[in-house]
Amino acid sequence: MLAMHATAAVLGLIIGPPMATPMVHVPAPMAEIRQLHVSAGATTSFLVADALDDFGAQQAVKDAALLARKAALKQRIAEAEAQAVADAEKAEKKEAERLAKAEAARAAKAAKAEAEAAEKRAAREARDAAASAKAGGSAAAPKRVDPSEVVKVNKQAERIAERKARGEAAPSLFPQ
């Protein structure tokens, strides 16, 4: 259209702006609009209310089922925990009984070994006493050295005892 205006201007024609057609609004009769609005709105709102009521009832049933499942799950968990605690206590009791039996067995074995050692020692002392009585020695048995006992040796004390037995005097630092 701009090209047309430019061509018309070149030819010397005078063309004004195009004329606008006015917009005319034709109002609808109000009674018909109100009647349509009331009947459509009432039907729609009743349908929506019924649908919401139905949905609410369905949702309440679903919520109740969900709460029941949650309660059942909590109960199963509590039962499992109680069973685990009972099993742990039972195992602990068994372990304590086993340890007590083992300790009693160790104590009995140690007592038996000690009794046997005392019996052997008494038999040996009796045998040594009988042997020394036959040989004419004293009734006291010589002291036995336990092989597991550490024997202390004091060579200086032994030398002093030998020197006194020979009747020699103690050496002095500064002889006279």
How would you describe this structure to a colleague?
- There is one protein chain.
- With 176 residues, the chain is an all-alpha fold.
- The protein is built from three helices and no strands.
- The chain has helices spanning 2-11, 30-135, 155-166.
- The longest helix has 106 residues, at 30-135.
- The protein starts with a helix and ends in a 10-residue tail after the last helix.
- The mean pLDDT is 79.
| Poorly predicted sequence stretches spanning 5 or more consecutive residues | none
- Please count the helical segments: 3
Number of strands: 0
Series of secondary-structure elements, N-terminal to C-terminal: HHH
- Tell me, briefly, the overall form: elongated
Amount of beta strand: under 5%
Structural class category: mainly alpha
Determine the fraction of residues in helical runs and give it as a percent range: over 70%
Report the radius of gyration as a whole number of Å: 62 Å
The mean pLDDT is: 79
What does the main sheet amount to? none
Give the distance, in angstroms, between the N- and C-terminal Cα atoms.
159 Å
Can you summarize this structure?
The protein is an all-alpha fold and 176 residues long.
Draw up the topology in text.
Elements: H1 2-11, H2 30-135, H3 155-166
Question: Keywords, please?
Answer:
mainly alpha; single chain; 176 residues
